[in-house]
Write a structure and sequence with these properties.
The protein has ten helices and six strands. With 360 residues, it is an alpha+beta fold. Helix 1 packs across helix 2, helix 4 packs antiparallel against helix 5 and helix 4 packs parallel to helix 8. The termini are far apart.
């Protein structure tokens, strides 16, 4: 036996369903307006609005607009805006109330107290003191190491070495940033609790910025104390020694060959370290070796001190002769005679000493 399934009602087109929904919304809105509006208009006309007919509601709405004019329209608009059935009106009212409440709250918010501002300043200043100290410390030591090594080898300026040291300085700031902030919190420095309105106030932001600026300046100034632990002129002296090497070779090789002596040397006077040093000593056993002697030591030191030429025929009998030069194997032979003379600058100060040994 064949049984037929119950027939489903025909589907309604979406446009038809949407139109019916809009009609129902219009009926509800008109009914709400009629209930909330005054029953007597400006001209004394009473508008009955049935709630069971969309046509009657629409006619009542139109009659109110056409009869009462602007006054009825204003009353109708006010009633419609107060109708809960309108989502837009409810949203607008909600936004208006929120804006009004926040305006009242911001206008009634009090600025932070002086004690709170002091805590904000300290909380922002302390970590930046550590940041500034670490940044300047790493910059000084890294720049000095680069200047003494790469700078001397390739003839870089101290400014270029400092710029390269800044790379290590900034990297250390990134690496130690979290550790510094954690240390500040463990030390008991806590940011005061502020309201949202107090956080955006100008006085709060200004105090926070001032704390950071003062902190990083203080930290950098403390980092400058590291300059007392290093020799800031070491790189410059190393570069000068490298430049003097070529000059030594050009001058002393010619002097060694022209004069016909066993060895020739040029000693530079270092008044800061109170010593004399030579590098390009031509003709001896330790050719191109760096030899340093205290200021005033030996015949060279005596000439550097007095500024007078010394011609010694027998060095073994001279009271100022430094026997350690021969004993250390610097010359590689026994020194018999020495002609030593000063090199002065335009101010008459001795800057170097030339010495010719064992003229044949």
């Amino acid at each position: 036996r064949c049984t037929s399934a119950p027939r489903r009602p025909p589907r309604t087109h979406p446009h038809v369903r949407f139109a019916a929904m809009m009609r129902r919304a219009a009926v509800a809105a008109a009914a709400g307006v009629a209930r909330r509006a005054s029953p007597t208009s400006a001209s004394g006309l009473t508008i009955p609005v049935p709630t069971n007919s969309a046509t009657s509601a629409w006619r009542a709405w139109t009659a109110a607009e056409s009869t009462n004019g602007r006054i009825a329209g204003v009353a109708t608009a006010r009633a419609w805006s107060a109708t809960p059935s309108s989502g837009f009106a409810a949203s607008a009212a909600s936004r208006s109330s929120t804006t009004a409440s926040s305006s009242v709250a911001s206008s009634s918010a009090h600025p932070p107290s002086a004690e709170t501002l002091r805590k904000i300043f300290v909380f922002n200043a302390v970590p930046f003191v550590a940041f500034g100290f670490i940044d300047n410390t790493v910059l000084i030591y890294a720049g000095d190491a680069i200047d003494n090594s790469v700078g001397v080898a390739f003839g870089l300026s101290s400014l270029a070495a400092a710029a390269m040291g800044q790379i290590f300085s900034d990297t250390s700031g990134v690496l130690f940033g979290g550790a510094i902030e954690a240390w500040v919190l463990r030390a008991g420095f806590i940011m005061p609790t502020l309201t949202a309105e107090q956080n955006v106030m100008r006085v709060t932001r200004t105090t926070s910025t001032a704390g950071k600026v003062c902190g990083v300046i203080a930290g950098c100034c403390l980092g400058l104390l590291n300059l007392l632990l290093i020799d800031p002129h070491a790189a410059e002296k190393a570069k000068e020694e490298k430049e003097f090497t070529a000059v030594f070779r050009a001058i002393m090789d010619e002097g060694h060959n022209v004069v016909g002596c066993a060895a020739a040397s040029l000693w530079i006077v270092d008044y800061d370290k109170r010593e004399l040093w030579t590098r390009a000593s031509s003709g001896n056993k330790m050719d191109d070796a760096v030899v340093r002697r205290p200021f005033g030591c030996g015949i060279v030191g005596d000439v550097a001190t007095t500024g007078k030429v010394s011609n010694v025929a027998d060095c073994s009998k001279h009271p100022k002769f430094d026997v350690s030069v021969d004993a250390d194997g610097v010359t590689g032979f026994t020194t018999h005679s020495a002609l030593t003379g000063p090199v002065v600058d335009e101010h008459g100060r001795v800057v170097a000493v030339v010495q010719l040994v064992n003229k044949g």
